Amino acid sequence: MVLAVVFGGGAAHGAYQAGVWSVLGPRLVPAFVIGSSIGAINAAATVHMAPQQLAHWWQSLTSLKTRGPIFARRNFVPLLEQMLRSPKRDQRAVLAVTTRLPDLRAHVTRIDGLSVADAREWLLASSAMPGIFTPIDRHGTSFVDGGVVNDLPVDIARDIGADFVVAISGTGIGRIGSDHGDVYLKPSQPLPRLFNFRPAAIAEMMALGKKDAEMTLRHMTFSLPRS
Q: What's a BP term from Gene Ontology annotated to this protein (predicted)?
């Protein structure tokens, strides 16, 4: 069985996903992970960090000077590069979804075999929310946030070959399809605003993610597969 984990978009709501992953991560061995926007960044992080390390990484993001999303992003890039340079914990495939311009088509890039610089640019493209961040140019083509066309790319994971999908929402503002995966985790309570990286907000979202994941496990009538 081919197991995939899908991470949705949602900016600071990625902290919720980190909370979910702290519970589910030790129980899963996916063949690949895929994400849109902040979900692509979290997907990449699962290869370089243990589940609890990802939670600590999100806590470190609260130190960013948040004078608006553009300023915060500028300070975020070094942390992203540091994560990508850290040793890999496993060799699972990591896929980032972007939106190609001008035709607004979903574009999927496997980034786990790329250089740090190339992987960084694809992750920045996947999270380049229109109207806030400028498009990212890759080889003469412009790309923006993958959530524009597919904020929870479960269907793409199926097309690639996943038999079983665990989908973790970030409640982003992009479009999602009707397929929410075989196990679908989304916030059981409203989350703070998309760009609220304040320590209290990050802690709140991670705690809710952990709680929701534990609740999901308790109510399962089957065991999670391991690829």
A: lipid catabolic process
